[in-house]
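Example A, followed by Example B.
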Amino acid sequence: MTDTLDKSPAASVPPEQIKAIPVRHYGRWVAGAVVIAIVVLIGVAFSNAKINYSIIPQYLFDPTIVSGAWTTLYISVLAMVLGVALGVILAVMRLSSNPVTSTVAWFYIWFFRGTPVLVQLLLWYNISLVFPILNLGFYKDEMNQVMTPVLTALLGLGLNEAAYMSEIVRAGIQSVDEGQTEASHALGMTHAKTLRRVVLPQAMRVIVPPTGNEYINMLKTSSLAYAVQLPELIKKATDISSTSLAVVEMYFVACIWYLFLTTIFSIGQYYVERRYARGSTRNLPPTPLQRLRKNLRMFGSFRRPEVAR
């Protein structure tokens, strides 16, 4: 009976093969077509605009523009160094159990985060109207001679950045488990040594990414120093446009320099973040260069070998 059932015609027919039909995402095609159409319209609009694109390469490496880019670079670096150093101090003061220091730090952060950077720059630039003479006891001079555009930009940008950096550092310190601090104190380490040797190295994984983002933002915010006569990139581009009458073209030149500087520091930020992520991630993601090499190897493996004649 069993042999008869096994030899039946129905049992010998193989099952029908399942055909997998992929889901069609028509919305993606429509969205892609809309985006391409918008990009084409923007390109057509700029191609027909009254812009002399041939002037841009001529002024891209002009000594005046290069000096302005250099000024933008070093004032942003100095302001960021001041902001990071003061931000660490403010973060420690904010986390202190001393009500005086924590209140002073909170008031500093509240004031500098609540007022525009441009207003702070103008206040420092016009501080001689309030204090005509700077008298420190061991040093005395007119405030106009002391408060140069470079010092004005450094104080205006650096002190404002310190308020934001203090919150970033505070978040990084609080991300470290309290057991690390308790264990350090049990080993006889002081609070300052614990902070320097144990807490801050572990907090860097949280501090570094927003700090890099803040510096890239600082590069662009430094353009506000144009209002206090600092000879940075925008000031130099504006000076050239006033004589050449190529206003928009000079702004394009400034944009290219800003994009170049932010790209360089973005690459540096990526590798710094990768370094501090070693302790938290078992397998680090491949770098862009490693991904490129992998794709090239895959492309080479797909190539057909040449047939020998």
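Example B, a separate protein, is given below in the same form.
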Amino acid sequence: MSTRTLISPATLARPRGKAVYWTVFTAVVVLFALAFLFPVYWMVTGAMKSPDEVARTPPTLVPHHWHLGGYTDAWDLMQLPQHLWNTMVQAAGAWAFQLVFCTAAAYALSRLRPAFGGVVLGGILATLMVPAQALVVPKYLTVADLGLLNDPVAIWLPAVANAFNLYLLKRFFDQLPRDVLEAAEIDGAGKLRTLWSIVLPMSRPVLGVVSIFALVAVWQDFLWPLMVFSDTDKQPISVALVQLSQNIRLTVLIAAMVIASIPTVALFLLFQRQIIAGISAGGTKG
């Protein structure tokens, strides 16, 4: 059965049709690239302008004079190394806890078939319907009662309960070849050995996706770290950028935002193949 497209194969076979097709295709790709990359360019070059040029109307597309001092000032004045380190510690802990507990829960619901597993899964997915803002006060009171304020554990523990990542893992585990798992069981592998030696190596794509989601969620979170960390020296970069921006030049603040976004962009560029593969593997395929 031939694939139907907007342009027929006969039209594409003609020189005129091929030229029109590639012209339109190139124009669309360039427009989408500009739409996504122009804000990044605007932010990066904005930090290199003078304060007067940043506030000028109409704005300039290219800085008249390139000033790299905005980045060095942001690195020193806003104490970016310390706040970036705080963010890395919080994100790494949340990632580790979430990966361990979500993987264990998803494997149990998918392969161990516990009693009332469908009800448990339904209750977990029902939490996706609850606005995140409605859970802030109960979470804060719980963390305060446990004495975890100004402690990274206050970020790690709430991050464990991620219904979306758990469901993504469960969907992937449901699609694993049954004959491979049965062969491992015949060879005498227990449930934990099967999880460690068979399931996890086959689940690298979806584990990469869950890892990206977990790290980015902590990296860009603002409200919860603002409530938990009253100590300025322990605040992550997302909160510090707001708290320390009162007496900072606009160009320095823009430079700090650029620096703060580099780790997540680099993470995506390094693992984009795993992300795409994991999303495809964790789809709705039966």
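On Example B: The radius of gyration is 25 Å.
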